[in-house]
């Protein structure tokens, strides 16, 4: 396999979006993706990018990606969140994901983060085994909490005077 891990470019975003959609199907949420290539390009490339993306390429074809962004921990300081790491199904189990994972960890270390964090679905046994093998710590006493757009709008109505 002629594999290269590179920082993504705007030209890679159609393939990255395709991988995001493939991940949504894998995670049993095929209709959950609401972004498009333009949103990826606008938010990932410019003066103040909201994310960093690395792609795995085989002979110039994107076969995997890892997308991450900085966060700030009130306990630790600068941290990195790995939002998604996905490899095309036919390339899984060939070390592509590990190379992307290694790139994200290296990026974090080179940029002085105090921790890298991410979430994994409890039924994704292969990913869990991979992360455990890497030495990652699982924080099982913490809940992932989020407010999606609909819930956010509903909540704002409860705190905004009519």
Automatic annotation (TrEMBL):
Record-annotated N-acetyltransferase domain positions: 3-157
Keywords, sorted A to Z: Acyltransferase, Transferase
InterPro entries in UniProt: AcTrfase_GNAT_prd, Acyl_CoA_acyltransferase, Diverse_Substrate_AcTransf, GNAT_dom
Enzyme Commission designation: 2.3.-.-
Keyword Acetylation: no
First-level EC class: transferase
GO molecular function: acyltransferase activity
Pfam families: Acetyltransf_1
Protein name: GNAT family N-acetyltransferase
Organism: Dokdonia genika
Lineage: Bacteria, Pseudomonadati, Bacteroidota, Flavobacteriia, Flavobacteriales
